[in-house]
């Protein structure tokens, strides 16, 4: 059992608060963009193209992440004070909202610019996985997205009055730690496969399937409110993504196999 005593606020100047959350999330984005840029260049994209995409990924990703969090916590957290929906520096970003918002930005810009959408998604997938792992470090410091109360053997308790946990001094299941390990494992798999001769789109589909599957089970330990069928928002989205991506992957593999072994190619 571990007690977290770090103050989420690094320093305050009047009404301005410099928080660990914002710095770590920014670092996560920069790392993800840097890796994505390197992979995209390796796959034939120009550096300027990737950086232009990155700006929109960040913007739509943040909007989606905040929107999903607000929807999930509207009755208990935001209904009484809606202006707090704008306080993203206090924490509260839903990962699925960020991923889907970023995915939407990539697809739209790729279509407009006539880029190979699937190839670009594959290039950005490893960086996204590592970025999510780094970003969850912010949750450990702030107490955001911790799991259910626990009596052991592994839990985090927070004593800083600025922590986002429901109750100071109580031990909670450290779900951000499990998500960090999950994302690092996914990153390792994607990084190993990135140089293989895979059909465009397979790497990003694999990423979504792995993330959805592990996130579904990890989120059983979370304290997120249930939405339907005893499941929370993150789990329902995970199921939906799996139901879309698994058949899509099968079709992609079959199509690639037919093209590869077509008599016209022999």
Summarize this, please?
The chain has 266 residues and is mainly alpha-helical. 62% of the residues lie in helices and 8% in strands.
- Helix-residue proportion: 55-70%
Characterize the overall form: globular
Task: Tally the beta strands.
Answer: 6
Q: Which sequence of strands runs across the widest sheet?
A: 1-4
What count of domains describes the coordinates? 1
State the separation between the terminal residues, measured CA to CA.
Answer: 62 Å
The pLDDT mean sits at: 84
Name its key features:
single chain; about 270 residues; mainly alpha; two-stranded parallel ribbon; two-stranded antiparallel sheet; 7 helices; 6 strands; about 60% helix; globular; disordered C terminus
Q: In words, what does this structure look like?
A:
- With 266 residues, the protein is mainly alpha-helical.
- It has one domain.
- 62% of the residues lie in helices and 8% in strands.
- The protein contains 7 helices and 6 strands.
- It has helices at 20-42, 47-78, 95-113, 117-142, 175-193, 202-218, 233-260, and strands at residues 2-4, 9-13, 16-19, 156-158, 226-228, 231-232.
- The strands form 3 sheets. A two-stranded parallel ribbon has the order 1-4. Strands 2-3 form a two-stranded antiparallel ribbon.
- Helix 4 runs antiparallel to helix 5.
- The model is unreliable at 261-266 (pLDDT under 50).
């Amino acid at each position: 059992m571990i007690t977290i005593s770090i103050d989420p606020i690094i320093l305050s100047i009047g009404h301005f608060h410099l928080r660990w959350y914002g710095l770590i999330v920014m670092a996560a984005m920069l790392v993800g963009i840097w890796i994505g840029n390197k992979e995209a260049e390796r796959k034939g994209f120009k550096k300027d193209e990737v950086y232009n995409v990155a700006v929109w990924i960040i913007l739509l990703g943040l909007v989606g992440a905040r929107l999903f969090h607000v929807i999930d916590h509207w009755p208990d957290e935001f209904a009484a004070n809606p202006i707090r929906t704008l306080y993203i520096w206090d924490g509260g970003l839903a990962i699925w909202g960020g991923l889907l918002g970023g995915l939407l930005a990539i697809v739209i810009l790729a279509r407009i610019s006539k880029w190979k959408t699937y190839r670009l998604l594959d290039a950005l997938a490893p960086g996204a996985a590592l970025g999510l792992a780094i970003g969850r470090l912010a949750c450990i410091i702030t107490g955001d997205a911790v799991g259910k109360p626990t009596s052991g053997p592994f839990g985090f308790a927070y004593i800083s009055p600025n922590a986002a946990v429901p109750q100071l001094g109580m031990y909670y299941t450290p779900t951000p730690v499990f998500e960090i390990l999950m994302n690092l494992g996914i990153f390792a798999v994607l990084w190993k496969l990135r140089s293989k001769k895979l059909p465009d789109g397979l790497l990003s589909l694999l990423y979504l399937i792995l993330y959805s599957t592990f996130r579904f089970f990890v989120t059983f330990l979370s304290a997120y409110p249930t939405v339907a069928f005893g499941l929370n928002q993150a789990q329902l989205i995970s199921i939906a993504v799996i139901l879309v991506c698994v058949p899509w992957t099968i079709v992609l593999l079959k199509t690639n196999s037919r093209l590869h072994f077509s008599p016209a190619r022999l």
